[in-house]
UniProtKB/TrEMBL annotation, chains A, B, C:
Catalytic activity: aldehydo-D-galacturonate = keto-D-tagaturonate; D-glucuronate = D-fructuronate
Name of the encoding gene: uxaC
Coiled-coil region: none
NCBIfam families noted in UniProt: PRK02925.1
Taxonomic source organism: Novosphingobium organovorum
Alphabetically ordered keywords of this record: Isomerase
Domain of life: Bacteria
Name the record gives this protein: Uronate isomerase
Length: 470, 470, 470
């Protein structure tokens, strides 16, 4: 007999009954607040075309790198999961077979956030009442597949049902933003904005960098051969993104290094990186552009986000066969105090700048990030990111940052996902864990209950809107 | 209506009722023990002159870098807080205006130790019964201002009321120690001792280093041009400090590096640093002097403290305008195992030396510091320091060090503060958090209740007296 | 009056009554499972000869580096503890005197795992009912001494009484494995296997390295002057170890660095290290051999273990006087992501390889190890090791790895000890702490109770058997 799916109303709340009661009361005040999703990777084409999602596996499994990595780690080949290979070699093409394979390995996710998110999608989004496993796989597949064919599961209907007030996607300056234009032209009331992610024209180690820069400058009517032209092209595209609703930029760099070079040095560096950069020049160029972006953010008001510290595509064989974003990215140690020095010397005392820092290196929470954000007016702390977007990750974040940076130097929650159906589940985990943390402070008489209610709302809603200027 | 100030008798105790009861019982046994404050930064002039403190803002806000940094991080200019600028530009001079600005931002401190300390000062030191906010600001100001004009709030009266058995201040060898002499000459029974902090004559990167060394040697009657004279001057001043009650030295270095060079190399290095040191020579000189200080500590019995790992005055613009200690110091990663090698090779096995290690890099608690202190007879672990002098910081310290270093290789609590009125609050937080940790061990049957009572007393009182030889 | 020894049945379980009840139920299902000890340092001679242990101090104190380090850190000389010096200078030779000295310092172990293990040995192994201290020292000594003279305390009887299903010892390829042969020849049913630890012929910085390699190759009938002969000798000895039951290899390296050099570079490097290696060549050789060992593991099926990141014998004076393993080993920061690159590029996607990673640098749990093991099919995470084989260490391990690597990329518990009598206590602590962690997940509705029972068994028994192929 299948086991019932248990989405317990008290999930993630502290076991101690007194503390749990406080957490429940706090959560009741924020559970139904609209979702502000200021940073993520949903596809704007979904909302532009409002076409139905094709099938359960293509929607929920094949594009989810959290799912792929866990199955792969236990010997499940990516091809058997329907992940398309670059060499065109055969992979599983039956979504039901992919789904069954996933279901038969679902126990691997015990104790992980993927399990919590997925259970929510099954139970709350699709109304499934049994636990997913090999036996219930087909039943679940059929329920989901049928639902996806209905109007209620079209992207816009889900957007509205999920209570999303605003969602940001992420595009590069090489993107036409046509989907965002189509959304606005459609008259649909959903607010979908873009974010300016210039990595392909900022990172000289991107394949095709020089061509990217040439297109980037040409489309802006600027001279790509000179650094001034390159900067002007950024200004042009930033304005274009602002017009498409963007309130933020995003920067995914190997490190947090920043630089503040003279004009002459910038010009010479720019020429070198266009001609083919050394590793050190590439690093220095990325570092300089972060400072340039901060300067432009002060001009145009766009909030800046920095996501450093990942060794991308650590598994080279997998990269070659299946491409990027298949679960082979691994965090590395990441230093911020010296790295951010040049940018902070230039702009750190300017309250008009908001630079939101993320990390995968939790060591820096209490040592570097909380002290920096608890001092510089320009800095804020982003929520726990990626591997740390999880109950324990959130607990560590609050435990290690609150005492030095407080709550008001943090910016609420980001779901940072392309897994659209899991977005409410992710915000719900964050709201529950923040209420749990606040409830503990109340239970230990470190915070008043009224204050905790204010804070619960701030963490769930207000801070994200304010920090991202949404 | 103003909200009542809640200094709950169970604050910081665990929420679980059984564990809380144990914590309460442990705390009852240590709550009223005298305060031993073996490391801090109060001004000996207070106790020498016993003059009244001037006003609430000058006493409680303007000199508190924890307070300044949080307000500054949220866009409050330091000038508006009455912090004097070096260029003499206008700053707020009305203490009541400073106080109101602080009160209207008091919510920023939710969840921080500053909030706990400050609430204690309001409620316990001044008998205020309402929470501080914009509305109650004037009331609180008036209560405090009136109290400060009374005899009961003179420094010596507070010292006695706070139950301070002994307090150490910190002076450089360039200090005359006149205030300590005045205290002793006054016949007052309060025990205020100094500590030998030679950084200005040890760190070649200190502005005016060569002049400092010249004065330092001259006042000792030694030849500043030779290394032997320099060392003899240390011996002279250490003896002078011992005579003023000092039982410890303190060393605030960028890193924990130590060295043990030959006499010839020392002599040559000394000449180079006097002439203007390179960064590497400066580092090497500091490293060598740590080992020399250890040698002298074995001779004269002074306990040695090492506080490494801070990037001082990271915010250069702020340093230029307002000077040091305004909240712009940021911790950095700090290695101990290799760094301490030279000193430990020389003196680590000598139980006559006590070297107390502090850190702002919590990563090293379980990896480096607990293993080192759980092995070398000369090493002890200082309590959680500065940013980590907080409930969560204390919890992490015990969780990560106890299993390897035990309790008896730690040295009790240091308040490390110049915020005199908060001293009892800081010791109280430490006593509560240690009782909470012990109660959890008892509740989980990892420690007997009788043993926990012994340990609670040791952590609150005995270990500090013993380790600092007070 | 002596205090009663308290081995509370609920020890280590959470204080919250509801969560404790869940933990108790989970533990009831795994408490009595057989012990699988896949990695440790017991002496096979014990089981081969089955000779009685000599006396309480020689069995329980003198060889225990956890005990020695704590006593030494508080000023107890190793000689007074009966540790033999290399220079033959006099040390305490009366085991009762050693025991009394230990007993009078037993309070130093409060809050440490040594205390928990030792209490178990006193209470459960020897039936002692009083706490050990200076007063009860003689009583405890006599009870233990008398027991050790009985048949019931011979090694094989204890092995059976402890419910050990299989235990692995660790030998170098220079070992004859005669004790393992004798065990098998004896007809005794206990399963004692060896593990292949080739450090003395892999680490060019081992004293006598070239001689070791010469013996190693000669005993295999291979040409020690060529790299191919050296590798063939590994294959020979690995087969010899397999025949003695080995299912695993173990590698204790300063770092996790791996390399994958060309044949020519290997040959040249091999010649250089035989002639006397530079530090960099030694590191590169160790790195290359890790990859060679992985290749051979794929051939012969032996599971590979890597234990990096210790500064061995940090205390040089102690090393000179008393030799290795006296408590002077100190962990250092250890990087895995870049270091393992070469090996993982070569073999990381091969599910036939199992490489079990250990660390003493807990920072890498969430940042590096869980992401790596949650992706590469060849990787698994070893349990918390050495200083972290403790309740808090186990808690941190699960809190920081589960959400990214899940449970099934971990391998159950290793006791890693030569302290034979403490083995059941160590496994019991691990079982209790895993049940505590699972109970918390159940209480917070992050895991079903039925699933938790499956996992409790997996963590206590199944995963170790499977991962180590036992």
């Amino acid at each position: 007999m299948p086991r019932p799916l248990d989405l317990h109303p008290d999930r993630l709340f502290p076991a101690d009954p007194g503390t749990r009661a406080i957490a429940r009361a706090l959560y009741a005040g924020v559970r139904a607040l609209p979702i502000v999703s200021p940073h993520g990777h949903t596809d704007p084409a979904w909302f532009a075309t409002n076409a139905p999602f094709s099938d359960p596996a293509s929607l929920l499994i094949i594009p989810d790198h959290y799912v792929l990595r866990m199955l792969y780690s236990q010997g499940v080949p990516l091809g058997a999961l329907g992940v398309r290979s670059r060499d065109g070699s055969a992979v599983e093409s039956d979504p039901r077979a992919v789904w069954r394979l996933f279901a038969s390995h679902y126990h691997l996710f015990r104790g992980t956030p993927s399990r919590m998110w997925f259970d929510w999608v099954l139970g709350e989004a699709f109304g499934i009442t049994v636990q997913l496993d090999a036996e219930t796989a087909d039943h679940c597949y059929e329920v989901i597949d049928a639902a996806l064919k209905t109007e209620a599961f079209r992207p816009r209907a889900l957007f509205e049902r999920f209570g999303i007030e605003v969602i940001a996607t992420t595009e590069s300056p090489l993107d036409s933003l046509e989907h965002h234009a189509a959304i606005r032209a459609s008259g649909w009331s959903g607010r979908v904005v873009t974010a300016y992610r210039p990595d392909p024209v900022v990172d000289p180690e991107t394949p095709g960098f020089a061509e990217n820069v040439a297109r980037f400058a040409a489309s802006a009517g600027e001279d790509a051969t000179r650094y001034a032209g390159y900067l002007a092209a950024h200004r042009f595209h930033r304005a274009r993104f602002r017009a498409a609703g963007a309130t933020s930029t995003d920067h995914g760099h190997p490190t947090a290094r920043t630089a503040d070079l003279s004009s002459e040095d910038c010009e010479a560096l720019y020429r070198r990186v266009l001609a083919g950069a050394s590793a050190e020049d590439a690093e220095l160029f990325r570092a300089q552009i972060l400072t340039e972006m901060a300067t432009m953010s002060i001009e145009d008001g766009m909030v800046m986000q920095l996501h450093p510290g990942v060794h991308r595509s650590h598994n080279r064989a997998l990269l070659e066969r299946f491409g990027r974003d298949k679960g082979g990215d691994i965090p590395v140690s990441c230093e911020y105090v010296a790295a951010l020095g040049a940018l902070l010397d230039r702009h750190g005392n300017n309250p008009d700048l908001t630079l939101i820092l993320f990390t995968l290196d939790e060591d820096v929470y209490s040592r570097e990030l909380a002290p920096l954000a608890g001092h510089y007016p320009a800095l804020r702390l982003g929520p726990p990111w990626w591997f740390h977007d999880s109950p324990e990750g959130m607990r560590r974040f609050r435990e290690r940052t609150t005492e030095t940076a407080g709550f008001y130097n943090t910016v609420g929650f980001n779901d940072d996902t392309r897994a659209f159906l899991s977005i409410p589940a992710r915000h719900d985990v964050a709201r529950r864990m923040d209420c749990t943390w606040l409830a503990q402070l109340v239970a230990e008489h470190r915070l008043g209950e009224e204050e905790a209610h204010d804070l619960a709302r701030a963490l769930a809603y207000d801070l994200a809107k304010a920090a991202y200027r949404l």
